[in-house]
Amino acid sequence: MINRSIEQAVLRSLSFFPAVGILGPRQVGKTTLAQKLMTELQKPSVYFDLELAEDFEAISQNTTWLLENNIDKTIVIDEVQRLLPLFTQLRAIIDRKREAARFILLGSASPSFLQKSSESLAGRIAYHELSPILTVEAASTEIPWQQHWHRGGFPDALLAPDDGFWYQWQQNFIKTYVEQDLSQLGITMSIPLLNNFIRMISHVHGSLLNYVTISNSIGISNIAVRRYLEILEQAYLVRRLEPWYVNMSKRIVKSPKIYIRDSGTLHFLHNIRTFDDLIKHPVSGASWEGYVLEQVIPLLDPAIRPHFYRTSNGAEMDLVLVDGITPVVSIEIKISLAPALKRGSTESVNDLKTKNNFVVTPKGGNTSIRPGWIHCNVVELIQNLQTLKFVKY
User: Fold this and answer.
1) Statement to judge: residues 143 and 228 lie in one domain
2) Which of 72, 294, 300, 342 has a C-alpha 20 to 30 A away from that of 192?
3) Domain assignment of residue 121, given as a range
């Protein structure tokens, strides 16, 4: 089993909050993590999976009786977004006996789940997002970075016996999301059109988000594109990275950039079947950029916000970490093994005035290439950010 970085943070929340929510996409390992937590808690626990008909019926038909009769246990409810009316009863039960670790709630991609649970359990619940397996987690099991980048971080996909099984897993994963989950979340377009929409997003991965271009390409309105992208974000499939432009006098690009969050999913959507195919593919540079972002952003301290920076005259930085309104770290991401800096990068640092600056390549080396600049790989970057106290764990 691969140890997950958030485990200790979740246990800390369970020592204080009556309920803890673990959110993330399907197949990311929420159930496995919860089952491990159940063995580490100081009291007995009971598990219900609302995707199982018998568990769903038991809780929906006998909610109060079932929860009250397990009042001295930690109750784990998986796929809890399938029974949103449950949250009102959870609030009442928690308030009658307010103690730590009463509930662990696991949820997969549901905006209504987030909204309803926040309204009903405000002040009673702490949320944690479980991302796909990170490179620092995979490295502890000696999984090569090449395999992790190519296959992505979903556990079953990453650990598949070969690339053929990985590809088949991704195929089934996308089919399940498209045909079941996304339609339940509010995307009403046909399945073929939704497939085209997701593939269109994969082709603009790492680019500035242009709603008109996407709208014209697949024949739906700008408003629908915006709404569907919001749903894909809340389903943990895509990330919009906002530009940094506070207190800047220059002409700044103000459109966000769009990324498919899991590199393995991106590669499947581009029909990239092996690592050798990946390094020769035109998307490899943008893929590496998105991959590095997804290894860093889930680990950031909540006070540190990620952005990118770009001006109309060519200054550009792939990732800028901002503390409050102050940029504190600039990160240039290069697939080339050579750490040479572009003029746009040095101009960006002059604008942003960041003292800690990194060039991230696959090879790295953690070496200084000029004052204020370190050349490193992804794991070395995270170690440097840990030293600077910009990551949570």
Assistant:
1) yes
2) 294
3) 7-129
